[in-house]
Amino acid sequence: MIGAGFILVAVGLLDIARRNLSGARVGIVVVLLAGTLLPLAAWAGATAWWFAALAVAGGWAATTSTREPTRWGLWPAAGVAAVSAGAVALVGIRDGQGPLANIWPGGSPLGTVSLDLAVGIAGALVFLLESGNVIVRASLRGGVVAAEAVGALRGGRLIGPLERILVFALTLTGAFTLLAAVLAAKGIVRFPEISRDEDGGDRAEYFLVGSLVSWVVALGAAFLVWWSGSS
């Protein structure tokens, strides 16, 4: 799981940096983050996985944008999902987790959480923040949604990450009734805006496509963590 966790951390931090910075500052911050996390990866006995994560993040940066859709569509997201799933299938939770595991506090309110699983959860949470927005935006590319519809449904950039984190957390904890209530509440809150939609149906399409893709990303991250913990 630590390999998938590192991949999601690297991609997620990269997107946060790209969204909030520009030009050379992005490169400086990325290099600093990569250098800071390298010793932690070494202490966790997973240096090779950290370099693999940086390679995946480089490919992600070349094929996605945090500001507008690219011609690659959802293929980069599919690639990250495939590589992360492959990392879980190959490694899962390791028996030996490096020197850092000796000082890792495994206990939590949810029970014992190993270092590998904690890295996986942290990676999923970081990825769901801005990278989830990148994936949702990619799903809406190519004129699927009119620009006025995107502007009409305000707050998506903030609501989306919060929603994905809630879906992720509630799924992992098995709170499916509460999860259903959260998803239903979003539809209720958005209903007045959608009901004012015109004949084109752009707002409704934007809401449905964006919401479904956002939920799939969160559920996929939760499944990845669950799969690792059960393997």
TrEMBL record:
Indicate yes or no for the key word Transmembrane helix. Answer: yes
Q: Which residues are listed as membrane-spanning?
A: 29-62, 74-93, 113-130, 165-185, 206-227
- Keyword terms of this UniProt record: Membrane, Transmembrane, Transmembrane helix
The domain of life is Bacteria
This chain's protein is named Uncharacterized protein
